[in-house]
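Entry 12.
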Amino acid sequence: MLVKALRKEDLAGFIDNLAKAYVVAGPVAKEFKYVFAEVDSSSELALDYNTTLLPPKKYLLPQRETLLSYEMGNKPEVKSVLDKTRRVIFGVHSCDLHGIWLLDDIFAEGSPDAHYLTRRDNTFIVGIDCKSPCWERSFCKSMGTLKPGGGYDLFLTDLGDAYAVQVATRAGEMLLDHGDFAPAAHETKERFYEAWRKKNEEFPDRIEFDTERLPAMLAEAYDDILWDALEETVAAVRAFVER
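Predicted 3D structure (C-alpha cells):
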C-alpha cells in the first residue's frame, strides 16, 4: 500500500480537476439528509456527511438500466448495451466500500455479469474516513468494516491540516495526476497510524456474538416478515430521493 499526502487546501482543486476528466459523484446535502449525486464542483460536496439515503452502489447496480437494443430488418440484430461512463465516486465510507467489495466478487463469479463488470471497470472510487460513529447504535466495528479492506482506488484519512492518502490500485495512481500529492513523510505516516488508533477507541463493539454465524442466521430468516417491512421503507426512501 502506497501512502501519499494531500494538503486540505489542495483537496478542492483535486476534485475540480477530476470533474473535468470524469463524471464525479459524491455526497451532497438534500434538505435534512444526504444523497450521492453527480456534481460539477467540489463546493457541492458534503464530505462531513454521516450516512446517505441510498448507498453509492446505485452507480454500479442502478435501479433501472437498458440491457439490450435491437434492430429489425432482414437480419434482426440484438446487442448488449454496456455503460462505459468514466465515473469517479468520491467520499465513500469504509462500510460502503466493503459492500462494493462483496458485489465485485458476486458479479464476477459463476456467470459473470457483463453489465456490472463493465460499469465497475470504468468506475473509480475515492473513499474517505469517518472519524466518529454515524449513529449511536452503529455496529461497523463489530462487523469488521471500520477500516477499508478493498473496493477502492484511493482512501483519504483526515489528519487535521492534511489527508493521508492510501493508494490501492493502478487506477488510483492515475488519479493522483489530477492533484498536488506529495510522498508521505515519516511524521505523516505516524499521524496516520495514530488517527486509526484513536478511531478504533472511538467506535464501540455492539454485537455480542460471533458474526461469522450471520449467514446461517439469515438463511433461517429467509421468509421473515421483516423483509416486507424493509421493502416498504426502501420504496418510501426511493420516492423521496427521486421526487
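Annotation: The chain has one domain: 2-65+77-206. The chain has seven helices and ten strands.
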